[in-house]
Fold Glucanase.
Amino acid sequence: MYSAAAIFAFALLRSVRGQQIGTYTAEDHPVLTVQQCSAGGSCTTQSKSVVLDSNWRWLHSTTGYTNCYTGNQWDATLCPDVDTCTANCALDGADYSGTYGISTSGNALTLNFVTHGANTNVGSRVYLLDDENTYHLFNMKNQEFTFDVDVSNLPCGLNGALYFVQMDGDGGKARFPTNAAGAAYGTGYCDTQCPQDLKFIDGQANMLNWTGTSANSGTGFYGTCCNEMDVWEANSLSAAFTPHVCSGITGQTRCSGTACGEGDERYDGVCDKDGCDFNSWRMGDETFYGPSMTVDTTSKFSVVTQFLTSDNTTTGDLVEIRRIYVQNGQVIQNSATDFPGIAAYNSITDDFCNAQKTLFGDTNSFETRGGLAEMGDAFEAGMVLVMSIWDDYAVNMLWLDSDYPTDGDPCQPGISRGPCATTSGVPATVEAESGISVVYSNIKFGPIGSTFA
């Protein structure tokens, strides 16, 4: 166990306003309907909306329209130091469709990958709002979550992701006085990778030691950590669902140094970056998911995820995560593990995770950080729904859809994760392709057995 002082180098917050709101573009959250279901299958439609993550937004001076951040660097005049930058810079509203390729229609959300406007935008990340200033918080214990997805336009190297993270419901606005924007402008993101590419963390500019890593992004001194449940990470060739947990923190927490788990310190950080993944291809069934396979990714299908507890209540320990698919009226049970020396698991349990890690020779950081019980505690505290589309500048998404690590023997269990070539997924290549998108629709949630027939 690390001491708080060793893990989190929190800076004292000064009485300045920061992460303020710009007025150049009106913020109009796209409306998205969802359904909350009750036992027996009766569902009520609710009108919600989505909000774009703050990291994609235009960040400019509070007194004009000079960029605080251009390309992958901060403006030296507006941002000579953290406090000055925090006070000088404002987040502006978003042109969701024209700039970011984000649109809604009824219960459907479409995310286009590359959008060419005045500037070229790549990828996006949005959150489900309860109201204009508050994220919807989910407790999925003893509940199920269902959505339809169309991944037919997602090739190798892309990730259409739907997942939960333990963000603050108000985006951190109450905890951090320098965050004036809050959930209304998509602030407060965190996950188990403890990302250091966010321009603002805890309401302060993350410009200390900022280093550009691609044309539009970089990394700062701090990262932002929290529990994460990846309900869906997929393209048309491969898919995985994965719980990740953290130890010693509750909710969104800023990290630095070893606690962020970067590079060679991956397993020394506070969060489990590997998670306990169930990827049908990686678990030995190479005919289950893909074009014209059991789950046919050339057309839309439903994804059902059930979160079972030890006592069948919303307060019991989380003990199992089950996956079911529905396509063309057919209910399809999840594939089972198909390797010698391991039972035929078709869901995620702590026993499955331990057996999988042993079979693959992977570090079991999921167990050491609390396993499924920790994931359940995060849900009970409330988690935010995230939907995104992205490519991977680190390893070209090979961890999802190809052989990874690339120097491993693909005949060894756990190395092959999908049919894509190890040369695929290069961002410059996939970003030059046209027509890449993902559509999430028909979101339903409620007690086990209530969201699908």
About this structure: Residues 130-447 form a domain with the 1,4-Beta-D-Glucan Cellobiohydrolase I; Chain A fold (CATH 2.70.100.10). The helical segments are 4-7, 82-88, 96-100, 350-360, 365-368, 371-381, 398-401, 427-430.
